[in-house]
Amino acid sequence: MKLHEYQSKALLRECGVVVPDGHVASTADEARACAAKLFDAGSARVAVKAQVHAGGRGKGGGIKLAASAEEAGELAAAMLGSQLVTPQTGPDGVAVNKVYIEAGADIANELYVALTLDRGRGCPAVIASAEGGMDIEEVAARNPDAILREHCEPGWGLRPFQATRLAYRLGLSGKAARGAAATMMKLAKAYGDLDASLAEINPLVITGDDGVIALDAKFDIDDNALYRHPELAALRDSSEEEPLEMEAATHSLSYVALDGTVGCMVNGAGLAMGTMDEISNAGGFPANFLDVGGGASVERVANAFRILMKGERVSAVLINIFGGIVRCDRVANGVIEALKTVAVDVPIVVRLQGTNAKEGREILRESDREFIVAETLHEAAEKAVAAAGGGTA
Amino acid sequence: MSIFVDSDSRILVQGITGSEGTFHTQQCREYGTNVVAGVTPGKGGMLFDDEVPIFNTVREAVAETNADVSLIFVPPPFAADAVMEAADAGVRLAICITEGVPTLDMVDVVGYCKARGTRLIGPNCPGVITPGQCKVGIMPGFVHQEGRVGVISRSGTLTYEAVDQLTRAGLGQTTCIGIGGDPVIGTTHKDCLERFAEDEKTEAVVMIGEIGGSGEEEAAAYIAEDYPLPVIAFIAGQTAPPGTRMGHAGAIIAGGKGTAAEKMKALRDAGAHVVGSPSEIGAKALEVLGA
Fold first, then answer.
1. Which of A6, A100, A112, A255 is catalytic?
2. CB proximity B19 to A under 8 Å
3. ipTM more than 0.85?
4. d(Cα B137, Cα A294) in Å, to the nearest integer?
5. Structural domain of residue B149, as residue ranges?
6. How confident is residue A393, by pLDDT bands cut at 50, 70 and 90?
7. Which of A194, A196, A211, A359 has the highest Cβ tally under 10 A?
8. Whole-prediction pTM
9. Is the residue at B2 inside a domain?
10. How far is CA A109 from CA A46, A210, B39, B42, B112, in A?
């Protein structure tokens, strides 16, 4: 689960990382009032920042500076309700529902600092770079040596000498080095305490008087750990999430919308990806990823149909079930029952394999509803692509 | 021969009285697996299915029954602790089926197991089966057949698909291992490849990977160093978009890394027989091994 900048900064502030003063606003009037407060407190200028999950906001015009409260209000009015397009959003962009009004900072130097999981090593690592404020993936691609790492050893975590070493390797000294090292220690603690999968400060700013402040911040939280962080779960911004994916999740289905024409219903995530690949090999395009889970009960199948048929371009459905513990005759009956409650007006290709597959196929062949029955995955994919009108994207 | 488990393995089941634990323990026993003990705190002294003694702690279960492998069905909030309890009690192998364990829990658990010499398989995996001898997991036993090919996979049903093809091709399997779909797991593709290389009966390895992480690339680097067995590989998720988690917590292309194309290239360059479609796994294995 992704958190917004304003939420991430509130969390950072709680664990002692210095962040600029700022307030979140949902209307231009609120934004103007927030900005006025910051100017009254002595800010020379304020930043108006669109609160969306996508990165690259600066490039998309989602971060602007204002010299007066009036100007901040105008900038907020233009941003709020607009679709922000950044290099990380699709061409349609994402809706801006909130802006963050923040005191301007005195920037002498911009660094990059993040905690993330190093999957190869199986432990968290601090990633740091002297090239802050940029897209870190671009930096990594262009100049891999500019990316510094320290690993957090399981059971020990980040040790102060590692943070200090990083600070010096970043070219800092004196008060700035001490401040940056302290910030990294706090960030590493927050990463662990909050069950984050990413805790990023980009840029981490060194100010003119060697202060250290987090100018932008981003936390991603491990979905599997949300059960023990109800306060974080409450921060979920559902307006940023794909509505169908959310609906699927409430039925314990795993669904991802794609832009092809063959709707997929598969048991198991790996097989669901494999089925998508097979459709693509057959010259077609999957409309979605959908893992219906091991059980494939009538209710789950019905919910799966309901969700995948909301994909506007679905012109055929491919059901691929490998019956292991679940029996294919039951799945076949489940599909027929589910179709009594959900209207599916496109061809349905069904491939059942495993326990009682033959009986399952018989049940489908004998039903009133017309199914295209396939035995192998390859045959199923070819039939589904043909039924969807061939390889048109 | 086989790897990890065989007919001498003595299995204990943690979470044996839960609904998943009960059902799959029964399935494993029907397959012929030697389940010697169960563990559910508070139910010590009872019997599972009138035969298998249940203990309050893993240490007691091991002391009383000499169990050497633990199969774990404990719910996510308690799964990490259950694996550590198994390692502390000295089981040789802990197989964690549980899906949804917080990633940072596993970081500590993997280190804990290593320090105690316990091999962890999983979490979020179907388990391990040595066909004809011992099934320690949730896979459907009947699709497997004793034979010549070792199978390693991050998935569940996709593995059954591949196994089914190997069985139909008359090749069968030596041991099949589901290593799990999470970002941090106890046993990697490479670990399994090492063990299969030492197994006399395994003539080839089928390796099923998926997008995300670098386990397949590490396996490829290992295969490139004169790996003695032919490897047939498939990577799921060639059509997956970057930045989107495809069901498994670990199946995500992040920062442009972990794509199927990169993994397939690494494996192909290492000399593995890479297939582009899951339907081709059995046929490719047959072609490589001969009938």
1. A112
2. no
3. yes
4. 14
5. 139-289
6. very low
7. A196
8. 0.94
9. no
10. 19, 9, 57, 59, 41
